[in-house]
Amino acid sequence: MKRLSIIIPVYNEKKTIKEIIRRIDNVDTGMEKEIIVVDGCSTDGTKEILDNLQRKDIKVIFEKRRKGKGAAIRKGLRWATGDIQLIQDADLEVHPAEYPYLLSPILNGDKRVVFGSRFLKGRGKTRFGSYVGNKAITWAVDILFGANLTDIATCHKVFTRDAIKKLHLRSNGFEIEAEITTQLLKNNEKIYEVPIDYIPRTHQEGKKLRWRIGFKVLFAIIKFRFTR
Ligand SMILES: Nc1nc2c(ncn2[C@@H]2O[C@H](COP(=O)(O)OP(=O)(O)OP(=O)(O)O)[C@@H](O)[C@H]2O)c(=O)[nH]1
Ligand SMILES: [Mg+2]
């Protein structure tokens, strides 16, 4: 049986971490699942919840200090052994019920990389400002890398082990999403997009991304274009 690695970066998500794992457990992908949680030194009680998760199919990595989502994803990828590997945020913005749909182009076709796009069918429930920011960084990638993507910052990214292991990722922060996308494009990987549902949360509900980060990501994209 093939194995699916699910990498979950977590920082202060005590309200949703158990629910996201429950949702992952409930989805049948026809694959064995390996869950890798990387905790960035949570201070809200998430750590204690993770401490009590004694399961063979879940590996929990506790970082000594918070280094950012990118550092957590890179750490998770280092431990992942699955034939197919995907990233899942610990909030409830995107649903694990979409896995069969995201995996199908790889399992039943010849694709190696699938992104779940929040914007393939328009803006959906995304707030206008956030939509514009996401569009701007996606256009930057499309223009600078000759791509035709609609959502580079989606957290629902799925890869064959071969495609993801070839990357040399260095980002520590949210710019990891752009780094993954641009390195895949540089490696001539075809990124296949499927539409996904997205229920955005507010900063009160725990959202950590601020609009300023959009500029940081934009500069990162330009840097990724002109450096190796
Ligand atoms: N380990 C670790 N995880 C983090 C860190 N920052 C954010 N995360 C996790 O990364 C995931 C994404 O963070 P969010 O704040 O939801 O940001 P986002 O989903 O990329 O952005 P929006 O969808 O626009 O809210 C969540 O599961 C967070 O808990 C960090 O510094 N360390
Ligand atoms: Mg989120």
Secondary structure category? alpha/beta
Q: Biggest β-sheet, characterized?
A: 7 strands, mixed
The order of strands across the largest sheet is 3-2-1-4-6-5-7
Secondary-structure element series: EHEHEHEHEHEHHEH
Q: Counting H and I runs of at least 4 residues, what is the number of helices?
A: 8
Distinctive features:
7 strands, 228 residues, Spore Coat Polysaccharide Biosynthesis Protein SpsA, Chain A, binds magnesium ion, seven-stranded mixed β-sheet, alpha/beta, 8 helices, single chain
Topology record:
Layout (H helix, E strand, L loop, with lengths): L2 E8 L6 H10 L5 E8 L6 H6 L6 E5 L6 H11 L4 E4 L11 H9 L5 E5 L10 H18 L11 E4 H5 L10 H11 L4 E5 L16 H15 L2
Parallel strand pairs: 1-2, 1-4, 2-3, 5-7
Antiparallel strand pairs: 4-6, 5-6
Describe the model.
The chain has 228 residues and is an alpha/beta fold. The chain has a single domain (3-226), classed as Spore Coat Polysaccharide Biosynthesis Protein SpsA, Chain A, CATH 3.90.550. It is 37% helix and 17% strand. The chain has eight helices and seven strands, in the order βαβαβαβαβαβααβα. The chain has helices at 17-26, 46-51, 69-79, 99-107, 128-145, 161-165, 176-186, 212-226; strands at 3-10, 32-39, 58-62, 84-87, 113-117, 157-160, 191-195. The chain has a seven-stranded mixed beta sheet, sandwiched between helices. Helix 1 links the parallel strand 1 (3-10) and strand 2. The longest helix has 18 residues, at 128-145. It is globular, with a radius of gyration of 16 Å. Guanosine-5'-triphosphate binds next to strand 1, strand 2 and helix 3.
